[in-house]
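testing teh design pipeline on a random one, pls ignore if ur not involved
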C-alpha cells in the first residue's frame, strides 16, 4: 500500500515521463509547483518507489521511469479516481456524429481516422461479424455485355459487391430467373446461413441453367457468403507509431509492423475475453512479444442485442491514459448510438 505522498510522487513521475519521454529526476520534480516537498524528501520517496518496483532506473540516465507495475497502479488507482473533464476532442466526435454528412459506415471510418489523428496512436475498430445480419436486398447490375456487379445489402446497412464475368451462354432471361430464385432463397435470411442455403437449394432449383458446374456466378456467390461472414475491421494511423521514440529502433519497429500487417493485433482484440468492459493491457501483459513496449486499450460497443464490436488504441506504454481512456469510452458510446 503506497502512502499518500508516494502516490503524489508516482503520479508526477508518470505524467512527466508521458509528456517528455525522458527519465525523471528529483531535481525536475522539485521544480513542480504542485509538489510541496523538498528535494531530499522526493529523493527518499523515489528510492522507496524503486524498491517497491513502481519505477526503475534506465541504463543511460540517472533519472527514473515508470515500470509496468507503476503504470498499472497509475491506471487502476489514479486515473480511475480522477474526474473526467470534457475536452475539445469529445466535441469533435460529437460534431462528426451529429453532422450526418455520411452514411453509418462512412461515419465510423471517419471517426476511426479522427481518433488516430487526435491521439497520434494507431486506432482499430472491430465491426460486426455479419452473423446476425439478414440479407435485405440482392441485385445484379450489368455494366457491359460480359460483366455485371453483384450487390448484396444487409438490414444493418452493410453493402458488399463483386464484379463478375457473365457466362457467354446465359441470356438476360436466364439471369432474371437466377436472381429471382436467389431472392427467394436468401433475402430475409441470416448471413451465416447463406452458404448452406446455396449449397442445399441453389443448384437443384436451377438445374436447367446449371449444366456448367463451375459457373462463375455460383462461385462468386459462395465467395460472397464467406467474405461477409468474416469480422470487419478498420485500422488507421499505423505510421503514427514511428513518431514515438520507443520505436526509433528499426528492429523494434519492424517486429511491430509485421505483427500489425499479419492482423495479429486484430486477433488479440477479437479474442479478448473481457467482451463487455474496458481492457487496458500494458507492456508484457500483452502476450505477443512485439507488443512488450506497447499498451493496448479496448472498449466494447453495442451493435445489436447479441453482438458487440470493439474500438481500440495501440500506442507506447508511455500513453496519455488520463486523456485516452475517457476519450475511447466516449467514442465507444457514440458507436453504440450509431447502431440504435
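output:
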Amino acid at each position: 500500500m503506497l502512502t499518500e505522498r508516494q502516490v503524489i510522487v508516482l503520479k508526477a513521475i508518470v505524467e512527466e515521463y508521458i509528456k517528455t519521454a525522458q527519465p525523471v529526476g528529483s531535481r525536475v520534480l522539485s521544480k513542480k509547483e504542485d509538489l510541496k516537498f523538498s528535494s531530499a524528501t522526493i529523493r527518499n520517496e523515489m528510492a522507496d518507489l524503486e524498491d517497491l518496483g513502481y519505477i526503475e532506473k534506465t541504463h543511460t540516465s540517472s533519472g527514473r521511469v515508470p515500470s509496468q507495475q507503476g503504470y498499472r497502479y497509475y491506471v487502476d488507482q489514479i486515473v480511475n479516481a480522477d474526474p473526467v473533464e470534457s475536452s475539445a476532442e469529445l466535441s469533435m466526435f460529437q460534431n462528426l456524429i451529429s453532422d450526418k454528412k455520411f452514411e453509418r459506415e462512412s461515419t465510423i471510418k471517419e471517426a476511426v481516422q479522427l481518433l488516430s489523428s487526435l491521439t497520434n496512436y494507431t486506432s482499430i475498430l472491430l465491426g460486426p461479424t455479419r452473423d446476425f445480419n439478414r440479407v435485405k436486398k440482392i441485385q445484379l447490375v450489368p455494366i457491359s455485355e460480359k460483366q455485371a456487379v453483384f450487390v448484396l445489402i444487409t438490414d444493418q446497412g452493410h453493402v458488399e459487391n463483386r464484379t463478375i464475368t457473365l457466362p457467354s451462354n446465359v441470356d438476360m432471361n436466364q439471369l432474371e430467373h437466377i436472381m429471382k430464385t436467389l431472392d427467394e432463397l436468401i433475402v430475409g435470411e441470416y448471413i451465416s446461413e447463406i452458404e448452406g442455403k446455396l449449397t442445399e437449394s441453389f443448384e437443384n432449383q436451377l438445374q436447367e441453367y446449371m449444366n456448367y458446374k463451375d459457373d462463375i456466378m455460383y462461385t462468386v456467390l459462395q465467395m460472397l457468403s464467406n467474405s461477409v461472414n468474416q469480422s470487419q475491421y478498420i485500422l488507421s494511423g499505423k505510421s503514427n507509431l514511428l513518431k514515438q521514440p520507443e520505436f526509433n529502433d528499426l528492429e523494434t519497429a519492424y517486429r511491430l509492423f509485421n505483427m500489425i500487417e499479419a492482423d495479429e493485433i486484430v486477433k488479440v482484440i477479437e479474442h479478448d475475453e473481457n467482451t463487455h468492459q474496458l481492457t487496458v493491457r500494458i507492456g508484457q501483459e500483452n502476450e505477443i512479444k512485439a507488443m512488450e513496449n506497447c499498451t493496448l486499450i479496448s472498449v466494447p460497443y453495442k451493435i445489436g442485442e447479441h453482438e458487440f464490436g470493439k474500438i481500440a488504441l495501440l500506442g507506447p506504454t508511455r500513453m496519455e491514459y488520463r486523456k485516452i481512456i475517457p476519450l475511447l469510452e466516449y467514442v465507444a458510446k457514440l458507436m453504440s448510438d450509431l447502431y440504435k
